[in-house]
Amino acid sequence: MNVLTDNFALYGKGFLGTVELTVYASLLALVLGFLMASFRVAPVGSLRVFGTVWVTVLRNTPLTLLFFAVLLGLPRFGIVLPFQLFAVLALGCYTSAFICEALRSGINTVPTGQGEAARSLGMTFGQTLGAVVLPQAFRSVIPPVGSTLIALAKNSAIAGSFSVTELLGTYKTLNELGYSIVWSFIWIAVGYLIVTLSISALFNVLEKRWGVAR
């Protein structure tokens, strides 16, 4: 216990850093994922192509490589931001590709006749998507979206290698101070467990309230 009690402030700072990364990157991933899913089912060909390229590139790019591209590449183009914001961009964009595919799979479960009926009533594509299709699709994609955000929380550990304050990065300081590396990682694992179980509990509540009954 002394590893935790003697370094509670350090663990607390790392834990809050992981929570902030997870929250901000999740919000970005959900917004971009919704946007790309809309593009992928849009009647405009150029939007479908853009959405497909976005998903294909990001899903097949290692996250560590994406971190290098964002944190080291963007400053070369004059885009200088705090490292934490760069990490949020990398995590959020990467995860948005998986959110997009989860949402698109949910959209595909909605009978096409409902969209056709909405359009026959004079509704635009945006109105059909927002008022008819997405509310039904949302119910079926709660579990996969929850799993994707849990993966995002664990992927945030990569940010510690790029000078971003987060939970896993605390082991370097603890190792330098001579604490047991085993117990250091055990308490780090407990911190990640708290984050992931909190996300799981939230989506369990959402699924019980709005999920599709099976």
Automatic annotation (TrEMBL):
Membrane topology: Multi-pass membrane protein
The UniProt record lists the keyword Transmembrane helix: yes
Superkingdom, natural source: Bacteria
GO molecular function, one term: transmembrane transporter activity
Transmembrane segments: 15-37, 49-73, 79-100, 181-206
GO cellular component: ATP-binding cassette (ABC) transporter complex
ABC transmembrane type-1 domain ranges (all copies): 15-203
Keyword Signal listed: no
Main location: membrane
Family label: Belongs to the binding-protein-dependent transport system permease family. HisMQ subfamily.
Name assigned to this protein: Amino acid ABC transporter permease
Source species taxonomy: Bacteria, Bacillati, Actinomycetota, Actinomycetes, Kitasatosporales
